[in-house]
From TrEMBL:
Gene3D superfamilies: Nucleoside phosphorylase domain (3.40.50.1580). Keywords: Glycosyltransferase, Transferase. This is Uridine phosphorylase. It comes from Asprobacillus argus. The keyword Amino-acid biosynthesis does not apply. PANTHER family: FI09636P-RELATED, URIDINE PHOSPHORYLASE.
Length: 232
């Protein structure tokens, strides 16, 4: 057991899917996995292990934002030997051609978080996806005929910003969408020499104002889960 994860040694698989929402973790376990058991209820941040096509896999809620996600990423890697961290999250589109329910593979995670500025003494570190996981997800997307977008995403420290139009600056520099954890998870994975990938489904668009409902965000993003499970 670690401070925030109530699993015994060996109860968590080498590959863990990481939704921000713990109820999305439950939905993924209930919908896609066999032989499922719940290994974590600490703070309601549900974690499950099961099998997908005979292969062991876990799914663990991370909560929202880099500080919360880093607690789970660090404990999963250092206490439970996790090798592959695959975020399955929702994101807001910054680009006209990135539409609601589109899937984005995050090649890199820009961020407004201060964590890496502190760590690298004011210099700018570029957290990136693991190439192997990225290639596997692309291959699965081709196999399933799921169209994807890939590029830079913004991991923001704020959901509610003071100036809505600030997003346009990131958009001008090619950032595809905004979420709140990828840059932290990629950095933790790099530090510990394990693999990470963020697969994101567009839940709303800052460009058009369209939104999906909370229920939809919890439980209808099936293609992204198939891409994540396809990397096993
Ligand atoms: O749907 P999840 O995975 O939680 O991801 C996005 O949704 C939350 C904000 O509503 C943030 O965690 C953001 O990264
Ligand atoms: O962090 C997030 C997630 C979805 N949509 C947003 O606008 N921000």
């Amino acid at each position: 057991m670690s401070i925030h994860i109530g699993a015994k040694k060996g109860e968590i698989a080498e590959t863990v899917l990481l939704p921000g929402d713990p109820l999305r973790a439950k939905w993924i376990a209930d919908t896609f996995l066999d032989n499922v058991f719940c290994y974590n209820e600490v703070r309601g941040m549900l974690g499950y292990t099961g099998t997908y096509q005979g292969k062991r896999v876990s799914v663990q809620g991370t909560g929202m934002g880099i500080p919360s996600a880093l607690i789970y990423a660090n404990e999963l890697i250092t206490q439970f030997g996790v090798q592959n961290l695959i975020r399955v999250g929702s994101a807001g589109s910054y680009q006209e051609d990135v539409k609601i329910r589109d899937i984005v593979l995050a090649m890199a995670g820009s961020t407004t978080s201060g964590i890496n500025m502190q760590r690298f003494h004011g210099a700018s570190y570029a957290p990136t996806a693991s190439f192997g996981l990225f290639k596997s997800a692309m291959k699965e997307a081709d196999k399933r005929n799921i169209s994807i977008k890939a590029g830079n995403v913004l991991s923001s420290d704020e959901f509610y910003t003071d100036n809505f139009n600030d997003y346009k600056h990131w958009a001008e520099f090619g950032v595809l969408c905004v979420e709140m954890e990828t840059a932290g998870i990629y950095t933790a994975a790099a530090k510990h020499n394990v693999n990470a990938l963020s697969i994101l489904t567009i839940s709303d668009s800052l460009v058009t104002g369209e939104k999906t409902t909370a229920a939809e965000r919890e439980s209808t993003f099936t293609d992204m889960v198939y891409l994540a499970l396809g990397t096993l």
